[in-house]
Every structure is written in structure tokens, then in C-alpha cells.
Amino acid sequence: MLTSYAQGVLPHGLAPLANSSGSWSLAAFLLAATVRGGRTAAVAGPVALLMTVLGYDLGSLLRGFDASLGFTAFWLVAAVVVGTFLGLGGHALRHGTALAPLGAGAMGGVLVGEGAYGLLAIADTTSPVYWTGSAVAGVALVVRAAAARFPRVRPALTAAATCAGTAALFVVVYRIGFFLLLP
Fold first, then answer.
1. Per-domain residue ranges of the chain
2. Which member of 43, 126, 138, 163 lies 3.0 to 4.6 Å from 111 by CB, making a disulfide possible if both were Cys?
């Protein structure tokens, strides 16, 4: 619920942090990384995102703004689908499983993809500072994870390719998803 309020109080360059799918996804990823079992992580990721979406809408309604049914539905579906993968990815990275390169690459790709989308599509209405920072953070996450968790070439390339593919998919889904929601 605080995310809705934070949009109005954060400095201009950081305001997107409050309702950014990248920051929300990173929070779900990190939360899932703290749990012991993979099944629990697969539930923790989507639950964290579902609660964030619903909390944001509740905060908006309490502030006197409308909550769009179409956008809420889009984000709830995304929370379940993406949250499951982020949960498993956070768990894999933390526990060093064979899926760690995919997990780091997917999370990094969300951050890079959102940064790219922000710079390409909405930089005229928001500061490019956050979008640039998001992309840099995504690349840094993949590089750091590769160095610390899977320093061999093949897993590092897997993480990099997953990051690039996720980022590209992110931009496409955002462009198509939001286009379909417009009246």
C-alpha cells in the first residue's frame, strides 16, 4: 500500500521505484531467496507480487484515485506467471542449484527490460535516471551472480543469454500488453 503513496514523495528521478515492476520483482526474488524449499519459493514469489499489486490498488483507492480493472488484471496475471519463475530463480541462486544461471538471468532481464522500456517508451514523462539505473542493476546482478555463484563460462553465458532474452521479451510484452489495455 505504501507504494502508491511513495510515488508522490520520492524525488523525481526515483519516483518510478515505487510502482516499478523491476523493483517489485526484485523484492519478490529476494524474498523467495530467503526460504528453504523450492516449492515454498515458487509460492512466495507470486504471493509477494499479488500482495504488492493489491496493496498498490488499495492505496490508490484510499487516496481517491481509481484502480483500472484492466491494468489490475494484467498485473495479477503477471504476478502469478512471473512471480513463480522469480521465486524459483531466487531460491536457485541463493542455494546454488543448477538453475541459478537461469534465475539470475531472468531477474537481471526484468531489470534490464524495464530499463529499456522506460528509456524507449516513457522517458519523456519520467526521469531517465531510474530506467538507466534499473538496466545497470540488472547487468550488475548477472555479472555479480556469475562471479560468485557460477564462474565457469557456460553457466555465465547461460545467465547472459537468459538476461538478454528476458529483457527483449519484457519490452515486447509491455508494449503489447499495455496497447491491448488502451481504450
1. 17-181
2. 138
